[in-house]
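for ur thesis appendix - ABC transporter ATP-binding protein. copy paste whatever u need, i formatted it the way the template wanted (i think)
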Amino acid sequence: MSTDKTTLLELREFCVSYGEVEAVHRVQLTVREGEIVTVIGPNGAGKTTLLSAAMGLLPSRGELLLDGERIARPSVEKMVAHGVALVPEKRELFGEMSVGDNLLLGGFSRWRRGQRDQKARMQEVFELFPRLHERRAQMAGTLSGGERQMLAIGRALMARPRLLMLDEPSLGLAPLIVREVLRIVASLRELGVSVLLVEQNARAALQVADRAYVLEMGAVALTGEARELLNDRRIIDTYLGLGTKKAA
Ligand SMILES: Nc1ncnc2c1ncn2[C@@H]1O[C@H](COP(=O)(O)OP(=O)(O)O)[C@@H](O)[C@H]1O
Ligand SMILES: [Mg+2]
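the 3d part is after this line
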């Protein structure tokens, strides 16, 4: 596993513990520029823990590298400064604020750095999510689940990340909306945004990703091209529910 120029994020022997209990165990993972990488696995596998620690929200052991450079003690500030953004499992929108104001807040750290391109960024987000444009004056708290997810992603994009990390964007959404949201996630590649997508919905995730890691009990059980994993017997039987259902 060599680190070439195009490797954006790399985790080496990455471990995360809650007290005595290790929830993420020696994970090796890379995201290259322009890639959509997914981490799939059952509930409790450690997906949220992995993503939170990779964003610097939880302490970790092992190594985290960005652009081949080791980040000592990853913190949210360092990750943001390197162009990483996270859309957490709880979307953390401001329900009493309009869609437009929620988006503007997502661009605040850029604004503070003197980069006054929020209008153009917002235009980009509206092109990706025309529904947000229609609802730009509506209170975020009154949006549907799918629209809320779009707003959470749009808000993260306002910071112009190079790597967008998404924690279960399909959670609680109807299948058609899941497809719509993930189709837009896949299109981020054209905007030069790489994606690390954590999903319990293995089928939806494997359909949009380039590569995948299967996380089981905190460790990588399997990794490969997403297309190949979609046809892997072990994945089909365990995660895709295509196995022959025996009549009870
Ligand atoms: N704050 C916490 N304190 C202690 N244990 C936790 C905490 N959060 C998660 N865990 C445990 O870590 C494991 C992984 O959880 P999580 O990362 O949320 O999994 P996933 O996102 O894949 O469902 C689970 O066994 C869970 O109970
Ligand atoms: Mg989770």
